[in-house]
UniProtKB/TrEMBL annotation:
Keywords: Glycosyltransferase, Transferase. One of its GO terms (molecular function) is hexosyltransferase activity. It holds the Pfam family Glyco_tran_WecG. InterPro entries: WecG_TagA_CpsF. This is WecB/TagA/CpsF family glycosyltransferase.
């Protein structure tokens, strides 16, 4: 199953996890680097406010829905894809694929805590995963620093995300300089953040969910959609 849905004016892919993985398997055979983003509420709210970020999301080679609130916003209240999103099925299949095919991963984050948490999460939840390098993306550092470090290693996949968007913009602006096959932007997913040992406030999660619902209701009202 493959289609597009409109959430907050942003068009994202709507497909099951197996179909997404079939796309990724094809991407791994290509001669260019493809970009995949796990779309969260935070991603869409930023895209709604920022046209540059909206273009960034819609220009992704593949988007994967990472929060069932996004499906609710699109009036999808049941079905197998909703169950897969709730169970983080895509993440499971993605990293299992990386292990089975012995792909090498480079981890990026905005803080040392985030990078260490991501590394520990992958090692603990996916034994056999190959992480060959990692880096903290800093505001004052030249993008070439990270490009050179990644290209100096045999890296198949770059994984970023969890607590911010700085490293994702790095990918957006410099993808043509990288020799890797795939860049996966994980996004702010409470499930993975928690497993990575990052502090996730239930209150901030609730506030974000309420803010997203209000933004969706406003968007639907402005566009004469049924709320």
């Amino acid at each position: 199953m493959c289609n597009k849905i409109d959430v907050l004016g942003v068009h994202i892919d709507y497909m099951d996890a197996e179909s997404s993985m079939n796309r990724i398997a094809e991407m791994m055979k290509s001669d260019r680097m493809d970009m995949v983003s796990v779309v969260t509420m935070s991603t869409l709210m930023l895209a709604r406010r920022d046209p540059v970020w909206k273009k960034y999301i819609e220009d992704m080679d593949l988007t994967v829905i990472g929060d069932d609130e996004i499906l609710k916003a699109a009036d999808i209240l049941m079905g197998p894809i909703k169950e897969e999103v709730q169970n983080n099925k895509f993440i499971e299949l993605f990293f299992d694929f990386m292990i089975q095919n012995q792909k090498q991963i480079f981890a990026l984050g905005e803080t040392k805590e985030e990078v260490e948490g991501l590394r520990n999460y992958l090692h603990n939840d996916y034994p056999g995963i190959q992480i060959v390098g990692e880096a903290v993306v800093q505001d004052d550092a030249s993008p070439e620093k990270y490009m050179n470090e990644i290209n100096s290693l045999t890296v198949d996949v770059i994984v970023s995300g969890l607590s911010g968007f700085r490293q994702d913009m790095l990918a957006f602006e410099n993808k043509s300089q990288l020799n890797s096959k795939l860049w996966l932007c994980l996004g702010k997913q409470p499930f993975i953040q928690s497993n990575a040992g990052l502090k996730v406030s239930l209150w901030s999660t609730l506030l974000r969910k309420n803010a997203f619902k209000r933004m969706v209701a406003k968007y639907k009202e402005e566009n004469h959609m049924i709320v």
